[in-house]
Amino acid sequence: MRLFSHTIAEYTCTKHCGYHRSVPGANMSRFHMIAAATAALPLWGYWMHEKLPWYYFPSLVAGELLLVYLAGFLAGLVTAPFRGAAPSRCPQCRAPVMFAGRHFDPKGSARPHWGDIAIFGVFIALNAGVWIAIAQGAFP
To answer: What is the pLDDT of residue 22?
Structure first.
């Protein structure tokens, strides 16, 4: 099953020597939505124990999706120094390399890119922060 979605940036040699580089970037994918829904279940169970209505669950899922979005933003800031710059010279003929555009990966991917792993790691950390705040009594 292809759970991951990416935006691919394409770079090609201006002298058409055959050099081509594709650089994937993470998008919101099925995996991230499943992770958000799964992370909302324990929160829903906690608030059901606290006698709050059942219809809070959609709001919890929406909050978890916002956490995934925030995790993507924070992971982008954290991993920015490690991405590397776009290629400027062709390694084969030393001609300038041109940015040829971006496109969505139409099929998706069965394997996560390192950006997906970074987003998921930051998402787990944000959820741990939410649970720590709950344990300290920051929420009702």
So the answer is: 84
Number of domains in the chain: 1
Q: CA-CA-CA-CA torsion for 38, 39, 42, 48, nearest 10 degrees? A: -90
For residue 32, give the nearest of 116, 129, 122, 130 by alpha carbon.
116
Please give the model's pTM, rounded to 2 decimal places.
0.80
* CA distance readout (Å), 115 to 4, 22, 99, 126: 11, 15, 21, 16
> Could you list the residue range(s) of the whole structural domain that residue 85 is in?
6-135
Reduced to 3 states (helix: H, G, I; strand: E, B; else coil), residue 100 is strand
Q: Is the dihedral of CA 101, 88, 19, 117 positive or negative?
A: negative
Indicate whether 1 belongs to any domain: no
How does pLDDT run across 73-122, given as a tens digit for each residue? 999 888 887 776 677 888 888 889 988 899 988 788 888 888 889 999 99
